[in-house]
User: Fold these one by one.
Assistant:
Number 1:
Amino acid sequence: MSVLVTGGGGYIGSHMVWHLTDAGEDVIVVDNLSTGFDWAIAPEAVFVEGDCGDAGLIGRLIGEHAIDAIVHFAGSLNVEESVSDPLVYYANNTAKSRTLIELAVKAGVEHFVFSSTAAVYGTPDSYPVSEDAPLRPESPYGRSKLMTEWMLADAAAAHGLRYAALRYFNVAGADPKGRTGESTRNTTHLVKISCQAALGKRDGLTVFGSDYDTPDGTGVRDYIHVTDLVAAHADALEALRAGESNLVANCGYGRGFSVLEVVETVKRVSGNDFAVTLGPRRAGDPAAVVASPERIVERLGWTPHHDDLDRIVESALRWEDALSRRNRH
Ligand code: UDP
């Protein structure tokens, strides 16, 4: 049995590949390296440079390797970019997923784990948000991911494919062993940006909005350590292989931190001060998005081991520093 991981050179995908190879799984990675890096891929995995929407390539790989599961990370993830270039998002996140699902069905690949997002909820009426909350994505990014959830549900009903769609909240931190981390160029993510500011890699940070209806006026998010997130994928895969039914589940800890709390944590943990400017809101940013993690805990027995903002920040700082020392960026 082998696992096909799309986007295995990316931030979350590369952590998943390490997790799987650590567990002794045979892993085939497909990544077009548009945003990912070949050096981030565990050497024990077979790496094929190519596109997850290339039906010929994926069909051949499924035929050549005894693939029983696809873990699908590849895709585009910038909300603002999705507003200005929506068709790219529907191509990369929806159309290519359709191809992959069709190939899985045709070849009898039974298990599919999909990277979905809290963006499918849009601005929740209240938080913590459960999976039964209304689905009102506010961007092409959120809609492109939700469409894939729907395709999976329909393909599962019609063809017996079994799947887990995991709705990520704010993923942060890096592999505690320092083997990979968030290496994305031009990141928009708060934890990485704050760490870069703390290490002098950028001139401080702008807080996007300080007039939200939240305790300190800045946006509140549920930051989940990437190691706990990939463990959720591994748990989901194990459950599917054991014959458990399909799962759509939030991945978050169920508690929120404001932008200013994150910034203060990064300053304290790094011991470095940096300039913080209060700026206008960023288009499309909800005030607060916090997960209710009850379903994934109940269904998979998922147990987070890194639910601690200081540890998330420590690992992110270590990785950011390692990137500089490795002369990566
Ligand atoms: N944010 C900020 N300044 C930045 C980047 C992010 O104030 O330079 C805020 C953003 O408005 C949101 C939170 O930090 O409230 C998390 O943003 P991020 O882009 O990390 O993730 P998102 O929640 O948008 O997926």
Note: Residues 170, 188-190, 193, 205-208, 219, 221, 259, 282, 285 surround uridine-5'-diphosphate (CB under 6 Å).
Number 2:
Amino acid sequence: MTITRRTMLAGTASVALVGTLRHAGAQTAEFNYKYANNLPITHPMNVRAQEAVDKIREETNGRVAIQIFPSNQLGADTDMLSQVRSGGVEFFTLSPLILSTLVPKASISGIGFAFPSYATVWPAMDGELGKYVRGEIEKSNLVVMDKIWDNGFRQITSSIGPINTAADLKNFKIRVPVSPLWTSMFKAFQSAPASINFAEVYSALQTKIVDGQENPLAIISTAKLYEVQQYCSITNHMWDGFWFLANKRAWERMPEDVREIVARNINEAGVKERADVEKLNATLKEQLTAKGMKINETDPDSFRQKLKDAGFYAEWKGKYGDDAWAILEKAVGTSLS
Ligand code: X2X
């Protein structure tokens, strides 16, 4: 193997190189695939994905070797979405809201304050709502696994003060992921949202390009955002997940029986990851407080009312259409407009 000046210089490339050397055995596999994602290696998503990858290798007798590239090593979400479409990477996990830049209706599960709790999330995403969205994803020529993985209920962090009611969000400089729904929601709160890929979030907070961001506790903890954010307000303003996507040509190159092994193990790992994240989110408040974060609880009423008054629900109902909106309302058990 020649180590060129370019490989030496490019951070991403040298990480990939080390990975290749470490997994030299992968050379003998028939399908050498990459799974790229945006989360730290310590997040349950990567822990459970590693277990799935190991089982897949074992059950296929070494025919399928999937290597995980965590922490945006292969690029930011918007780059990785292009790569999974072109085949540059074979697998990728992405929030339904960011996926909506390609599949507009995919973001419907992220409507603000739609899901009251996990007890309504999983029957919806494993049921009619998830089926509807997967149908939309498939139209865009991507393969999607049946089980969505958990990101969690999102909370707002800040370096300048707590968010107690919707009024505190006015003029708040907040980072949001790259997605029209996120921008629209924080504009409805009259905040100043900035679309930034997760790869840049820690430094954007550190250099005060923005004053806050919003993410589930499991990410605030594993991505060490508590180092650059002092306040954490429990708003549960939306539930977010990760669709496990595959490049279609790469998927179809594998024979049917091999695909079954891959899909089954990924789906089983996803269900375990859901339980891990839920458990983590229940215990992390104490740990984050110990790390110096000031955590406050909030009441959803002022936030919901503000979104209603701003016409947020009516606007998005119009965009998704009455049929899709009816599936959402049925899933969450309340009228949202
Ligand atoms: O970008 C984010 O904030 C993250 C990590 O939660 C998503 O992938 C949507």
Note: The pocket of X2X is lined by residues 38, 95, 98, 151, 177, 198, 215, 219, 240 (CB under 6 Å).
Number 3:
Amino acid sequence: MLDLTFETPKPKVIQGAKSDWELVIGLEVHAQVSSNAKLFSGASTAFGAEPNSNVAFVDAAMPGMLPVINEFCVAQAVRTGLGLKAAINLVSAFDRKNYFYPDLPQGYQISQLYHPIVGEGEVIVEMGPGVARRVRIERIHLEQDAGKSIHDMDPNMSFVDLNRTGVALMEIVSRPDIRGPEEAASYVAKLRQIMQYLGTCDGNMQNGNLRADVNVSVCRPGDYERYQETGDHSVLGTRCEIKNMNSMRFIQAAIDYEARRQIGILEDGGSVTQETRLYDPDKGETRPMRSKEEAHDYRYFPDPDLLPLEIEQAWVDEIAASLPELPDQKKARFMEDFGLTDYDASVLTAETEAAAYFEAVAEGRDGKAAANWVINELFGRLKKEDHSIAETPVTPAQLGAILDLIAKGDISGKIAKDLFEIVYTDGGDPAEIVAARGMKQVTDTGAIEAAVDEIIAANPAQVEKAKVNPKLAGWFVGQVMKATGGKANPKAVNEIVAAKLGH
Ligand code: ADP
Ligand code: MG
């Protein structure tokens, strides 16, 4: 089991002109549900389709069309909730959030304000070995996404693409438990990793399938602890919300800028106005978008076209029973079963494909050696060509076979790297390649001795020096390795050289 005794990371402290300030951050993450069909229609969600080709009548808000809830999207939200150890609400309901969205023809968004499908949960965000923050999740609700307005195709007209209109989103709302820009990025990364494991959101930030509204405030040291003790929000500073961030780098830069901006205002004796802001990546600054709206401004009311959503505990239990092993568990198991370091286990569990690859190689072999080869050789080589693990030309069976040849003493580590390169570029069975190309390590001490004798006979002056200075033995070892094309067993060479030099 995962050891949950971890140290809490220090909050980021920014030194203002007058005093120290701490950051308080809460995130509202919008995650597109992985589903072939939309939340309330059967239209496809395929990315990159011809504009307006994936639009059902209900998505276009044709008169008389009614929404029909997609059971699979509900299951995905439940699955996500369970993955975040959250309470699942057996009764939830949909509300209309009234707002003019030019790319949502209904004129309102169907969301869940009053009764979300998922309640309180948590995400463990690791900031280093044994250092982690427990970020509380307040709720997850299901809602519709809007379409896309396109303003840069024509000087006089705007276009609208409704393909995304009505696609299911999960809005995952955290408590203000995040204490720095790096933590915020790590939190988003961890959420994304968990959802990728669960198969509930592909986490593709470039396509906008995962984006975050980032709430930032600053407070004096000690204030946050007071908030934790009392649960009283008012001891925290006034926050601003930075909308729609879809890059880890920009999330960090925006938080940093925003915190400094607020500190500047406060130290000048002013007060922060609660508002929604946008981050401009070119200028590296946030600027006001609109003043903060309240829930009542949206005239929320229960959607009369949809009955309250009732699900059964047995169905939830079924989903719970089918959950895959999640990142924290997998990492802990890799450390325990394969003796991996915290770092190696983190790298190898970052993606499910990489984890599965590693396990296939490590099963029945030396786990640490397998981790070294997968991380340093395979990942390193793939990275050179900008390939993902899914594109690896070396199968786990092939890499495993290379490790077996090393373990048996058939090849040295150095030769193994050459062999890996051959398998990577040409394919083939590693053992057969070794046999066919004469790459086998020479362990025959007679042959090694002969090679050592030859080097010694050819270099009498070096021998005299090495006899008094044992450090010079390394030169002889190097010469023997060179003479044998790197195939001599290094351990045997070392021993024989030492003996011949009288060490
Ligand atoms: P609202 O009801 O105005 O939407 P919420 O209480 O739902 O506000 O909070 C919205 C988001 O803002 C949550 O992610 C929450 O963690 C975050 N948040 C609340 N207070 C603060 C604060 N003082 N500083 C930073 N983030 C905050
Ligand atoms: Mg809110």
Note: The chain has three domains: 13-320, 323-437, 445-500.
Number 4:
Amino acid sequence: MSKPANSKAANQMWGGRFAEGPDAIMTAINASIGFDKRLYAQDIAGSRAHAAMLSATGILNNKDAEAIGEGLLKILSEIESGNFPFRIEYEDIHMNVEARLKEMIGEPAGRLHTARSRNDQIAVDFRLWVRDQCDAAITGLEALMRAFVAQAEAGADWVMPGFTHLQTAQPVTWGHHMMAYVEMLGRDRSRFIDARIRMNECPLGAGALAGTSFPIDRHMTAKALGFDRPTANSLDSVSDRDFALEFLSTCSICTMHLSRFAEELVIWSSAQFRFIQLSDKWTTGSSIMPQKKNPDAAELLRAKLGRVLGATVALFTIMKGLALTYSKDMQEDKEQVFDAADTLMLALAAMTGMVSDMTANRKILASAAASGFSTATDLADWLVRALNLPFRDAHHVTGTLVAMAEKKGCDLSNLTLAEMQSVHAAIKIEVFDVLGVENSIRSRMSYGGTAPDQVRTQVARWKAALR
Ligand code: ARG
């Protein structure tokens, strides 16, 4: 792209009342073409729909409309083949396209902007772009959810410790843990679907802010661009960016979910845990320590929320306190949304790869599940069920037995019946049945519980939903 220079001549698009051109620094701060060229396809689609409507309503004659439509298609292929001259003096994608159209077809190019403003033009371009990104996020999420479901199906009955406070709490199944993420990602997916529905109204035709005196057909352009309907208030149409904020907020929640699993991958793949093995494809070595296999991708995924949430906070801050309607502040929206969207799509793809390629160390998971007195709750529940103790008393008796086992340096199941009876005389031999991890998980049959049958029910439900 050409470097800005102090230009003597006033801007050709809007410079009628200007005696001299902008300072080079003004051009540099004002121009958005460096990043909004990414909206070229949306901009051209919007212009083509607008021109077709101008012609259908008789605002533009057919010959001019045809020349405009064809010229725009040529510009599209110029851009796609890398032959388009992006010029900073034309500020943004809208004026770059129009200036090039004028070079191609001459005077009719100047008629394209009838009954339109760059304010409704950018509003439509940006909505179209964000709408596509919602679709991409939904697709990416579904791939990741399928990867989690596949892990869950394979390991519906593999036991592992469940944690609270990162302390061993109760045994759970691998499948259950995987399916927890499917629930989170499923809600993210529905948030993108909802956001897409809400944003799918067409602002084109709002003009600069007040609508237009030309007899345009906003329903026609809305339909041509795949929107459900035109927006209903022209002031709101050019100044609304909450579709972008909703997208960013949803990206943030989703990236937060990814960061939680990323942290688990980091912990689980450590030499201290060895719950899983990450594949070589998603790890790196150390240049000095030959034994190392670092979970870099997981660490980066843990960090990405910093970036996505940063973009979210940035756009909220940009929009805060902006009086209606359009203000140039709003041009700062795009880089934030572009970066957050790129980050999310990459993160979803990387996480899908890692989840698909990781292997659970079943033996280590099982022995970890049995340690840390993980079946203490099962013991307390047994005391309630078999001996009719109030739960509070059962809790106390169990706590005494845990302390005894800890002192002995063994698990609850290694205490003798006599030792148990020294704490509560009525304890019977059947108590040992509930101290086993397998029995523990199988007993958690409540809906949404960790029992393998419950996990399989949820796996089946999601497999059908994701088909
Ligand atoms: N590049 C501008 C933006 O991104 C387009 C709208 C310009 N409108 C205006 N009145 N200067 O916001």
Note: The chain has a mean pLDDT of 95.
